User: Fold this.
Amino acid sequence: MLGEDAYAYTSCGGRRENQDSYRLVRSGENLCAALADGLGGHSGGKQAAVIAVSRLSECGAQGNMPGQDEIISCFEKANREILDTRGGSSRMKTTAVYLCIHGEAAVWAHIGDSRLYHFRDGILCDWTLDHSVSQLAVVLGEIRRDQIPGHCERSRLLRVLGDEDMCPEIHPPIVLEKGRHAFLLCTDGFWESVTEEEMALDLYKSGTAEEWICSLRQRLLRRMEEKHDNHTAIGIFAVR
Assistant:
């Protein structure tokens, strides 16, 4: 039996403007998800995120399993549109993460620090690595991965959409072997407030993608400070 169940939400948190954006698209055998987080320190971040999600959601829209060239092309289109849309003092930039599930296969790509997590039968088996100074500190052994949220250079990103030299990271396609697969796409305003252990625990307790995301969101809301960042998440269950 093949089937997918998806749920998503976005919130401005404690900010005046929500610069996150997301989209879920079903086309033929494809379920595609795109999520972006406009950089708050740059004017036009919200518009950059909307552009990114719009262009990335076109990837696989014909029902085909997108290959690496198609995925790169959609990231490049998004980047070029962001650069072309800038005006005056605008330095609009955004992170982005993309997922396509096609039958018994899945492929994803990202740039920046919006993340994707992949669980199989409740076990975390794949995750993206941030394009950030904090992630580099993990690689160098200076901090642990779970210490990234509190790192002093947490907000310094090394790759984003809106740079002339744009380089997304594409994960090779995987086969969705028999079992219960769960994908979580989220912005940093979400993953900074919930641990990977809590993601797995709430996944175990949840029968639907909505239950999973809402449980995690409740954890976030209990910890949310007054000026908490925008937070957005997409949850997808895929039974194979």
